[in-house]
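USER: Study each token:
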Amino acid sequence: MKSILRSLFVVILSLLARGVVRKYRPKIVMITGSVGKTSTKDAVAAALAQGFMVRKSEKSYNSEFGLPFTILGEESPWQNPFAWLKLFGNALALRFLPSIYPNMLVLEVGADRPGDLAKIMNIALPDAVVVTRLPEVPVHVEAYATPAAVREEEFYPAYALDDGMPLILNAEDEYAVAMSARLQAHVISFGVSESASARILKPKLHVENGKIKGMQATLHIEGKECPLDVPGVVGNPALYAPAAALATAVALGMSLEDACIGLAAYQPPPGRARVLEGINGSVLIDDSYNSSPAATEEALASLALISTELNLRRIAVLGDMLELGRYSHEEHERIGTLVAKQADVLVTVGIRSRGIADAAKLAGMPEDSIRMFSTSEEAADELITIVGEGDVVLIKGSQSVRTERIVEALLKNPEDSNLLVRQDIEWKKR
């Protein structure tokens, strides 16, 4: 019964959202890819705010069920029937009565299974598309025949672009670059490579008085430059979201100067390489939102960046990477081999991540530097006893592993828990 009701609500929400889009005709920027969508969505919305009345996807509402909430300007009612009635009333009023509506929607879109993005295209079509990254082994691959099928699904919004419309993509992503060659879109690339249209120059960790403040760089585009200053995060990937945002704004006709002013309001979302103060003088890298092989590689590189800059002991806390299907075993082992080179201590959480521990041991990591746990709560209890001054702790795992509970246990200031992911009441109940 529950699944029938959900399906019915999806149909109703989709029809209402489609009607609103057709009535108000806002410009739409869609953000797609396997890694970094939410950060990029937030950065794009900030950069465009000086030139448009912008509404963006809240949190990570990127499905056929979640996307209409953004279009309708509503929050999810969860399981509250009265909130659902109010939502439908507001939506009908928006659809059929005069109202002020944003002229720019920045929509994060995602897929769990084949055909998901085609359903989203039935609700709204993009005027510009940003492709973050299409890795070799993407998340959700267990639901698809091949990794290439996942990449094709995630690239799908780009096929909806008319000739000459902006397609903004990662210059270092060989798959996105190759797929874009099929289209007549206006392709703008971003990244550190010389081929990038929006090129990130001189990326570096911003450290003041021994404390990490964030990442800094300069973006060069169309003969002009804009400083990138991303607070409270670590790792070069954190610079890609603002770079994509500025490229998008310029492609949509804004001046780089105005886009830079808007971008100053950008704050990286929780659980994505956020640097927090930990207990006993430690440093935490909170990357607990989700996990995949590509994202874990990036996180380990960020761990190495901090330890090199500040000469800290590297502790990698890694939970299961889910939805990898037949690639799960080999990808967990591959990450374990990387960990042996990029961490001093390894803590794993979950059954699948034991493959990380086994591979790290085979790759030369001492056995007494490896600890394995079944749950995040167990791992947190152990880490409280071993983490101290001179340690940098990376915490990463798929959503259902709930590694944000480890971050919460290791916070120096308990009030910083409001900076973590999945802190609303409905999530805390799970």
Remarks:
- The chain has 15 helices and 15 strands.
- The domain at 2-263 is CATH 3.40.1190.10 (UDP-N-acetylmuramoyl-L-alanine:D-glutamate ligase).
